[in-house]
Design a protein that fits this description.
single chain, mainly alpha, globular
Length: about 400
């Protein structure tokens, strides 16, 4: 299969960015930022070439060569190598990046172009909106008020790209199990409306573009956090944990807890104890939220060891109560720093007690109706909690 438009755009962007690095050698910060961006784009091209087009030797070999040469140029600069060596490696990397882009345009794709709705579905917009809300809360808390408008927009845009890219890659890796579950069997890749190679290219392109936006307009720490969260979700949770242990969603919840860290880092440029509190809230919210959604027979058919499949409904309901109690306690921790006051405290208590009441109700009578009610409430809980967290410093 020939490369699609997302691969080609990423390869062109990588070549253009490499040219920018070469031409900004004396511009210090601009040169360093451009180098970070180029490394991310070249890495994205290399990953997409290897996993989506491994049969095309010229494609992935040119991409890998460009990435290796550019990395070597950066390493030469870090160790203080003579300028001629650094410049030569940079020129070779630019040549290889241009070659990689040219190779990407060979041939004509015969794969039907998916609709924009399918591409939008790949990004899981409903999940993304909740993740962006937690990141916005982290920004407001970190800034101690309303963050700068430009910084806020850049952070939300960059994080949206990161979330969308990771979700698209999740569609690719989960296509074999999605077909066995009623909740997921109509997804674009599982249903065959989007080729796995195209979805992979799309996910990699969004992930690389996310790093470009965050590193360019926010800061490198926020960009690295978003990248790490995406990699953890795709590689650790989706590829490994989900299929190997009933604790998959517990450990994998760390990926969904990264957006508040991105928001905090965007506003402050660092990570400190309050940021850990935000992380822990989402981390301990994830298991009771997700377990309420699990349809046991679907995951049994897909052979995924979710807790309800391995331990049964009774143990799952007990675990939901335990995690909810921990969540309610942890949600009060932000009160112990100056930016969280009475508005947040009252909201956390009321929302937390409501969550706990529904969890206890499910423990007593774990019916599908009660499970759906808890799942719906858990979405509102997290959204309202972070809204209260964001507006508290303003009042």
């Amino acid at each position: 299969m020939t490369p699609g438009p997302w691969y080609r755009l990423t390869a062109l962007g990588a070549a253009a960015s490499a040219a920018l690095v070469v031409t900004t050698g004396e511009w210090a910060l601009a040169h360093d930022v451009a180098a970070h961006i180029t490394l991310a784009l070249l890495g994205g091209v290399m990953v997409a070439a290897w996993f989506a087009h491994r049969e095309q030797r010229a494609l992935w070999l040119s991409a890998a060569t460009a990435f290796a040469l550019f990395s070597a140029a950066g390493l030469a600069a870090l160790v203080g190598a003579p300028d001629p060596a650094h410049l030569l490696l940079g020129a070779l990397a630019l040549t290889a990046a241009a070659t990689s882009a040219a190779v990407a345009f060979r041939g004509r794709s015969e794969v039907p172009r998916p609709s924009w709705r399918d591409y939008l579905t790949l990004t899981k917009p409903r999940i993304m909106s909740l993740l962006l809300l937690t990141a916005a809360g982290g920004m407001f808390v970190g800034a101690g008020g309303v963050p700068a408008a430009g910084l806020f927009v850049a952070t939300m845009a960059g994080l949206a790209l990161a979330c969308g890219g990771a979700s698209a890659l999740n569609h690719v890796l989960d296509r074999d199990i999605d077909v066995h579950m009623r909740r997921t069997d109509k997804r674009p890749v599982a249903a065959g409306r989007v080729a796995p190679e195209r979805a992979l290219e799309f996910g990699v392109a969004l992930s690389a573009l996310s790093f470009v936006v965050l590193a360019s307009f926010v800061n490198v720490l926020a960009a690295l956090l978003a990248l790490a969260g995406g990699l953890f979700y795709v590689v650790v949770y989706t590829h490994w944990l989900k299929r190997s242990t009933p604790q998959n969603i517990v450990i994998g919840g760390a990926a969904g807890a990264v957006p508040p860290l991105v928001g905090w880092a965007a506003a402050t440029g660092n990570l400190s104890l309050p940021a850990l509190f935000l992380f822990l809230i989402v981390f301990f919210w994830t298991p009771p939220h997700f377990w309420a959604l699990v349809i046991r027979r679907d995951y049994e058919a897909a052979r995924i060891p979710m807790l309800p499949v391995v331990k049964g409904a009774d143990e799952t309901a007990r675990s939901i109560v335990r995690y909810t109690i921990v969540l309610v306690v942890i949600s009060l921790l932000p009160v112990f720093w100056s930016t969280a006051g009475w508005i947040y405290l009252g909201s956390a208590l009321v929302l937390g007690l409501g969550f706990l009441a529904l969890a206890v109700g499910l423990r007593r009578d774990h019916t599908p109706v009660r499970a759906r009610r808890l799942f719906s409430y858990s979405l509102a809980y997290l959204a309202l909690l972070f809204v209260a967290m964001a507006i508290d410093p303003l009042l």
